[in-house]
Structure formats: structure tokens, C-alpha cells
């Protein structure tokens, strides 16, 4: 059996980066047909490389996995029991549809995309994102299943006419007029490429990424300036300025034209080097929105949205690759935000087809996620098949650590039967566990110390002692064996095996005079174990 990774695509560089070629089976009439198409692409890779994938996951594995991926928490015991008892052949797709339509899905994906688009930050800045409407804006995106291309355009144009979408300006505003930081955020967030390596020279390994692309992207945004308007935070834009040269490491200078990877250069007359530009009202459109900043007749941001962002092939490719990474553990291109010639797709035809399907079906995120989680690859067991080493084969479900928000929600739900997205525990965990979609899984010493020495989790569990909370309910049971079963089912969605049951029962019997405390210790040990902290 071959042990080498699935070979990357062998087509030309430009075709790999900006593919629009149609592939077999382009016409899709139903959602089930779309899932079948994904299955065919993945199965073709297994066949080509003589890979026997892992077996299909059981219902208990699936119900926990899909709840964590779609709604950001473990399922309740009632949700588990109802799913297992459901005798319908299509119960998995029915569950996926329910979860995708839920408010929990809205909150979870808002958490994920807040981090992917804005990065982790201190708690006071999370509060600021709420106060300025950014968080509400993200929630609306996923609640209304809005088209991603329209959302991207709103965020980068940053001129909302609707007060309900005022939070869209915060992507640019929070970066405080740091136009290089804006460019370095725009490229991976919307095009799936990292360009910071091209600040001082053309990219050292990805030849298609030029220094001119870095400074060209900066130029598209360098006339913007944060302002506090009557309508709240806004991004004003000047009609003049922003002309400069950039120098490479050899000292050669070039003008920073309005240029970006994979798009035609936007033409803009440049004043003579010794000419002084004068700002005047004649350079701006008449204001149509009360209290909004005036708009230049030649708007660099607007030209970027209309001539670069709109219909850019990487807009769809980057998003479907990111969604694949969210639910499958890694992108078809890995890392998911380095879609360049040095990180080619493991399944190029699949990526091409997903991007085309996404664009042709209105850039609908929910439809795309549904397709992915109902695929055969998603529903595999997490046990790696013998002799299969390459995770890019997607021949088994890739285990991955939960985000801070997933952990905080799940702990609340297990311990107290309900959760709050703004609970203090959420802030503690997202400050400690910063990664979302890490390139590799590393459990650091600081994480271990957070659980063993930190007071937050221990204090939360100790305070979870009301009648409706798990520890109190378990204390009321008649035997330690029943108590152990209840704790395992709440935390792991499974019953303990014989050895686990025997060990925990023995632990409880030795501490029968302080049973609530002993049960709290058991719950802490279950929550801090890898089985709880990973999706698998």
C-alpha cells in the first residue's frame, strides 16, 4: 500500500490557484446529489492510492461530533437519547437540518468567524465588538444565511446604508488606520493567502505573490480613516493622497499601483512627483445618507470591491476550503489560509467543484456546511486505519481540540444543564485557548496548569450545587454504579467500560462521607481529560 501523501495537482500554477475548469458531474439537481458528488471525489482518491478508509462512526459518535461542529457544544442526554431512538433512515440528515436552523448554530459560527476574521483579543475588546454591532452583524449573517460574497463586499466597502448592518465597519475600524495590518488581514480572510512575506520582496517560495501585490492591497485601503459619525464608528475615505513608492531589498523603487493577486490592475492617474494635490468638494459625491462620511467620486475601496473582490475565483475557493477545515479538521489546502503554489490542494478537482457549486448556489454557507457534514468522509470513525498516515487523504475523522467557547458552553451544559454565551467561564476559556483551526495540535504546559491550578473551573464546578445541577441529581441516585454511568453519559455521551466503572465506583466508596465533593472531583477529571476536550 502506498505510504506517500496524495499527490498535489499537476496542472499549471495559475490553474491551481484560480481554477475555473468544469469537472465531471457539474450539474447538481438536489442536495443529495451534491453530497454524492463530494463522496465520489474523496472515494476516487482512496481508490487511486489503495486506501481502505476507517469504518462509519456509530450514532453516539456522530451525535456528539455534529453538535460540537454545528452548534459548538456537546448534546444533552435527552438529545442523545432521542437521536439514538430515532428509527428513520435519514435521521442524520434530519438532525443536521435541525442544528443548522438553530440559534446555537448562529452563536457558534459567529464565535468561530469572529476569531478567524478578527483574531483573539482581550475581553474589553470583545465587549467593544458587541457595543459597536460587529457581533450582532455576524449573528445576522448566519441567522439569515446571507450570501458570503455580499457579506465580504459589505465588510470591505464599510458603508452600510442599513443601521442593522452598521457593525460591518468594525473589521476595518478595529485595525485603527493601520493600512498594512488591514491588507495583511484582508488577504487571508477573503482570498485564502498570506502576503506579509511580500512586504520587502516578492514571496520567496510562492512566485505568484509579488511585492507589488502587498503594497497594491495596502494602497486600496490607505485613503481610509476611522471617524466617529452621527451613525457611530465609520470609515471615511479621502479623494486624494495615498501615492507612494515601495522599495525592495535591493533598493529599487516602484510605484504602489492598485494591484492584487489574480486581478487586473485598477487604473488611476498619478499626479506628477512635484505636484501638490488639493482636496475639494468637487471630488466627492453628494451625500445620500445623513451623518455618513462623504464618498469620493473615485473610491479606491469601492473599486477594490467591484473590480477585485467581485467574481474573484479565490473568494469562493477560500471560503469552501475554510469551511472544510472547520468541519473536517484541515483544509483541502493546508494550512487553510495559505492557498498558494507551495501549498497545493490534496484534492484539486474537489476544491474546484466545491468552489463552483458554492458560487452557483448563491454563496450559501449553510448549504455548503450541510453537504460537508453529510459526506462519507465526515462520518468516518476517528481511529486511523492501519498503514494510512496522510491526514490529507481524509480516510478517517481527524480529532481536534475544542475551542475555548466550545469548552465553556459544554462544561456549563454538563454541569448545570444550560449555558450562557456571555458567561464568565467563556471569557476565561477563550483567553486561555486562543487557537481556532490550528495548523497542528499542541497541548502546552500552560493549558495543563490552567486546569490543574486555575481557580476558575474548580470554583465553577463547586458552585454547581443547586437542585437541578448534575452533581445534586447524581447524588440522589441509589447506587454508585448508576452515578458513574450518569456522569460518563453527561460528559462523554457514552457509558463507562467495566474498568472505568470499577475504578470510579471504588473511588466514590472510599469517600462516601463526602459524596458531593467526590462526585465533583470525578466530574472535573472527566472534563479535563482529552476525551472531553477533543472532537472525535
TrEMBL record:
Keyword Membrane attributed: no
Domain DUF1549 positions: 38-223
Signal peptide annotation: 1-24
Keywords: Signal
InterPro entries: DUF1549, DUF1553
Keyword Acetylation carried by entry: no
Stretches assigned to the DUF1553 domain: 308-414
PANTHER family, A to Z: CYCLOINULO-OLIGOSACCHARIDE FRUCTANOTRANSFERASE-RELATED, F-BOX DOMAIN-CONTAINING PROTEIN
Protein name in the entry: Cytochrome c domain-containing protein
Organism of derivation: Stieleria varia
Lineage: Bacteria, Pseudomonadati, Planctomycetota, Planctomycetia, Pirellulales
Amino acid at each position: 500500500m502506498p505510504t506517500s501523501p496524495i499527490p498535489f495537482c499537476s496542472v499549471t500554477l495559475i490553474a491551481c490557484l484560480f481554477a475555473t475548469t468544469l469537472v465531471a458531474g457539474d450539474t447538481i439537481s438536489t442536495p443529495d446529489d451534491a453530497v454524492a458528488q463530494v463522496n465520489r471525489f474523496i472515494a476516487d482518491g482512496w481508490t487511486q492510492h489503495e486506501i481502505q478508509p476507517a469504518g462509519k462512526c456509530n450514532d453516539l459518535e456522530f451525535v456528539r461530533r455534529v453538535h460540537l461542529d454545528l452548534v459548538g457544544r456537546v448534546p444533552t442526554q435527552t438529545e442523545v437519547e432521542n437521536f439514538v431512538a430515532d428509527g428513520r433512515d435519514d435521521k442524520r440528515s434530519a438532525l443536521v437540518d435541525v442544528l443548522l436552523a438553530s440559534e446555537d448554530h448562529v452563536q457558534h459560527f459567529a464565535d468561530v468567524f469572529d476569531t478567524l476574521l478578527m483574531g483573539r483579543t482581550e475581553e474589553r475588546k470583545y465587549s467593544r465588538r458587541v457595543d459597536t454591532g460587529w457581533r450582532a452583524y455576524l449573528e445576522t449573517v448566519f441567522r439569515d444565511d446571507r450570501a458570503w460574497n455580499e457579506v465580504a463586499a459589505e465588510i470591505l466597502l464599510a458603508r452600510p446604508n442599513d443601521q442593522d448592518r452598521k457593525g460591518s465597519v468594525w473589521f476595518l475600524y478595529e485595525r485603527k488606520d493601520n493600512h498594512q495590518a488591514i491588507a495583511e488581514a484582508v488577504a487571508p480572510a477573503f482570498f485564502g493567502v498570506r502576503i506579509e512575506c511580500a512586504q520587502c520582496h516578492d514571496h520567496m517560495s510562492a512566485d505568484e505573490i509579488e511585492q507589488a501585490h502587498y503594497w497594491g492591497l495596502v494602497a486600496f485601503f490607505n485613503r481610509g480613516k476611522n471617524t466617529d459619525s452621527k451613525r457611530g464608528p465609520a470609515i471615511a475615505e479621502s479623494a486624494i493622497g495615498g501615492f507612494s513608492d515601495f522599495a525592495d531589498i535591493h533598493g529599487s523603487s516602484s510605484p504602489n499601483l492598485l494591484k492584487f493577486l489574480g486581478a487586473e490592475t485598477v487604473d488611476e492617474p498619478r499626479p506628477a512627483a512635484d505636484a501638490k494635490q488639493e482636496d475639494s468638494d468637487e471630488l466627492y459625491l453628494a451625500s445620500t445618507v445623513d451623518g455618513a462620511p462623504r464618498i469620493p467620486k473615485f473610491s479606491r475601496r469601492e473599486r477594490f470591491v467591484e473590480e477585485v473582490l467581485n467574481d474573484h475565483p479565490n473568494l469562493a475557493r477560500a471560503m469552501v476550503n475554510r469551511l472544510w477545515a472547520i468541519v473536517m479538521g484541515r483544509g483541502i489546502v493546508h494550512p487553510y489560509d495559505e492557498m498558494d503554489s507551495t501549498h497545493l490542494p490534496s484534492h484539486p478537482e474537489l476544491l474546484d467543484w466545491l468552489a463552483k457549486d458554492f458560487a452557483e448556489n448563491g454563496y450559501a454557507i449553510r448549504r455548503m456546511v450541510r453537504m460537508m457534514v453529510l459526506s462519507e468522509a465526515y462520518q468516518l470513525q476517528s481511529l486511523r486505519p492501519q498503514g494510512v498516515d496522510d491526514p490529507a487523504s481524509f480516510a478517517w475523522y481527524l480529532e481536534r481540540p475544542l475551542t475555548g467557547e466550545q469548552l465553556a458552553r459544554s462544561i456549563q451544559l454538563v454541569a448545570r444543564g444550560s449555558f450562557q454565551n456571555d458567561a464568565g467561564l467563556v471569557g476565561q476559556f477563550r483567553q486561555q485557548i486562543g487557537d481556532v483551526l490550528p495548523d497542528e495540535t499542541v497541548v502546552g504546559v500552560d493549558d495543563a496548569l490552567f486546569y490543574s491550578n486555575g481557580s476558575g473551573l474548580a470554583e465553577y464546578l463547586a458552585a454547581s450545587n443547586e437542585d437541578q445541577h448534575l452533581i445534586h441529581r447524581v447524588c440522589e441516585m441509589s447506587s454508585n454504579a448508576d452515578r458513574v454511568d450518569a456522569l460518563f453519559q453527561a460528559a462523554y455521551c457514552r457509558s463507562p467500560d467495566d474498568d472505568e466503572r470499577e475504578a470510579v465506583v471504588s473511588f466514590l466508596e472510599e469517600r462516601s462521607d463526602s459524596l458531593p465533593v467526590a462526585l465533583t472531583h470525578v466530574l472535573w477529571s472527566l472534563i479535563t481529560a482529552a476525551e472531553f476536550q477533543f472532537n472525535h
